[in-house]
Amino acid sequence: MPQGMKVILAGYNVDREALDELRLSAPPRLDLTPETLSAAYARISRDGRPVDELRRTARGEIEKARRSNQAIIFKMGHHSVAEHAVFNFDLMGVSRLAIEAVERFRLASFTEKSQRYITLGEDFVVPEEIVAAGMKPVFTGAVKAQNALYHRLYRRLRPRIFARHPETAADPKRQSLLEGWAKEDARYAVSLATEGQLGMTVNARNLELMIRRFAAHPLAEVRELNRRLHDLAKEAAPSIVLFTEATAFDAETYGALAREARTAGILKGADKAKAGTAASLPVRLTAATADGDDRILAALLHTVAGRPFSECLTAARRTPQRRKRALFLTVFERMKFHDFPPREFEHAEMTFELTLSASAFAQLKRHRMATLTVQDYDPALGTMVPPSIEEAGAADEFRAVVERTEAAYRVLKPACGVAASYVLTNAHRRRALLKLNLRELYHVSRLREDASAQWDIRALAGAMSAEARRAFPLAAMMIGGKDAFPSLSAAVFNK
Fold first, then answer.
1. Which residues constitute the domain of residue 95?
2. 81, 172, 179, 208: which is deepest, by most CB within 10 A?
3. How high is the mean pLDDT of the chain?
4. Inside any domain, residue 232
């Protein structure tokens, strides 16, 4: 007879300090490790016993469970069993530049200290490369000048912002919002060496990848982070974090590619062309699915009609524009501001080249389901000066610190290589290539185009949405920030 549905909560995150307290007040035990879950779940495919019994067995045979994990992951290549082991890490005293390396990993979760809500102190990382090159005075002099400017800017911007929004300023509960606006503009002066902190949740498979990639990273700070993550993970779960050594593929591929491109003359003249890049468009659409509306409509028909995609695409292309619009309106009419289009909207893609500040990039990088590749920060691309700093008459002071920063960068770059980027500010720009499907762009727009979003990323999101509406006039008709959704919906449905 069927047993019927049974759901058991097998485990959940527990604070490590609580586990340590438990160990001190109870007899020694070895089963307080996520390895038992991985070993038990690995057996499901070949052992007919109930899952909860498999877990009990694994907890009672720790060494056997560890050998099983190693055999399944190493010999059989079934890395997915390591995904059942999850770790939580506190990362503190880590630079903003190193945090960018951490947050490149899609399948981990991060919550980061915000420079918008927290007043920054004087804490910053002094990279090992800069100390070894004897450049510490040059570096710290520039960073201390940036930090001093940050505090001066905050003191000047705060009263101006409060005066501009008297109703909000009159409500003590909302004053932190205005303070945040002042802080987020003042932070454009501070460096990528500024210390941050974050909480990270990651499963063992992705932690192993992170450790291996970090072992080959060009920054010493990230390699040190690799060592610390590895030591802690091996202590807690030695059987499921196995492939951790740096590989030639990770360490050497990009350098080899750059050398080959130069040898072939592909980069010839690039330095001459760079002079005009500072004035380039911040958002440029480089590619889009040519018949995106038709392909999305065909995918929707494919889901509901039970016909081959080729027939659905032919039908979509033959459908009059008026009728196509009616079909898309059927998809949108029940949508609320917190809803996103169905998964079929992922069948249309766009690629953008963005020239954006470090401050805007810090927010864009959180959209990890998109494909985001970047160049190093480049002073030749100029800086983003917040309008509030211009309005406060502090632009000359800001640019003077930027000039000092870039003078330090020019001295540091030949001696310290990529570590010179630590001295650059949140105002400095880099180029990024962003590929995302239309459904993901809806998510970016809802969050980053909203009135509550930071102005820099809001402008980028708005420009991308405008391109989407031109490329996919039907499928993108409801794109926009959360705050704009009621008026947008009313306009589309003539309410």
1. 88-249+387-422
2. 81
3. 89
4. yes
